Amino acid sequence: MRLRISLAAEEVPLRVPIQYNHLLQGLIYNNLDQALSNWLHEKGHAYGARRFKLFTFSRLFGKREIENGRVCFGGPAHFYLGAVDTEILGSLAEHLLKKPSVRLGTVECRVAEVGVEPAPRIDPTNPVQVMTLSPITAYSTLATPDGRKKTYYYAPQEKEWSEALIANLKRKARALGWTTDVDEDLKEAWVRPPS
Could you tell me the pTM of the whole model? Predict the structure, then answer.
């Protein structure tokens, strides 16, 4: 399930730093039920030593331009939030609809709209083409000959990129308590970037 959240700055234009993802993440955590926010931030869904939050959000969309190292939106800006756990979406929607304004970093914003996006229709017998709203990163941490750790980011054209994504999906399915054999269920799964 996915929400579309539209924000309008109390003072136009809405100005945020170029690197503003942490501001959106803060807005999300600060507008969830406190117990849910704490659990999600500190624990999340566990699989082995890994902890998964299992929500994702897009960048801000809207009429914008770059001025003095900041992104300036001339009108309302919106973003999308998707989550497997509908409790996260319900809690956020409820909190946002009850508040006259929220903070995006230091900017006071009016919540102009909270909408529920329709679920996509997927035919499990056919390949699915998905366009992401934010980049997908896949990497491995490797040891250098001198013993230091180095992060290697895979390009989408590399075979390891697809393998890392499938392995990540399997871990997340197990963290959610997938009841069937994940390896068997996803044995024919593959991911490739568009040509």
Answer: 0.84
